[in-house]
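Appendix C reproduces, verbatim, an entry submitted by the partner laboratory led by Prof. M.T., so that reviewers can inspect both the input and the predicted structure.
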Amino acid sequence: MASSTLVSRRGTRGRKARRRDTGQGRQRTLISPAQLGRPRGRAVYWIVFALVALGFTLVFLGPLYWMVTGGLKTTQEVVQSPPTAFPSSIHTENYSQAWNVMDLAQLLLNTLYYAFGALAFQLVLDVAAAYSLSRLRPVFGRAILGMMLATLMIPATVLVVPQYLTVLDVPIFERNLLNSPWAIWLPSVTNAFNIFLLKRFFDSIPGELLDAAAMDGASPLCTLRSIVLPISRPILGVVSIFAVVGVWKDFLWPMLTLPDPGKQTLNVGIYSLSNGVPQNVLIAALTIASVPTLLVFLLFQRNIMSGLTAGGLKG
């Protein structure tokens, strides 16, 4: 009886091995390896792939191309219909005129000041919140994290009115924060998505490292500073990029809280000065405002992907 059972198990294993060898156990795809091996199937595959890649490239890069070339055209050429694909004559002075007329240098400095201030507050407070929820395990920690994540389901525009009333007259302190950088920094501190990313990474750190530090007499704050933060550089880079880009691209909230033209951000300042500026100069200003964020993505796209997919430690 035992020998027959052993023979049947060996037969089952043999059939599974043959199924893997013949490719029957492999995951199905749109095009089988046999069809891809034929000349006709290979040609169809590459034609479809090229068309899809070209279509997505035009969809994503088309507006950028129109914006860059629009800043090189004359005003008549920008507004004419149908539009021209290439400028009839290149006018690079539109970019220098946009830089000087719209005072983009001051607007750029204001935006950098607000962005890096928000980054500093987020790194300090969001890291502390994520570390406490991940490792210190406070009472009702899961409920607090659940309520934080529930705020991601609320549209940002719904919170504009209560946030504005709060900034207009801060409870307890009774201060008006309009035209103040605190109006930009304070609402951006409690970022539930960044806290979730940081907590997820902290959960993947082996507990043996933290236990060894505790046995050596290190406090939780010392463990965070000397062990957790050096390991968490990838996810800290991702959170930093999200914090800077979030302030950089925001428009509605800075427009409401920064009415002073000398303290406005880049997006709000360009919008405020757009009425008396030719359209080609305005497009040139928009191109200049888009360059920093594009450079950040192109330079740090590998760090962004590695930080988002980081789920543990090797070794």
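The domain at 102-309 is CATH 1.10.3720.10 (MetI-like fold). Additional entries are available on request from the coordinating office.
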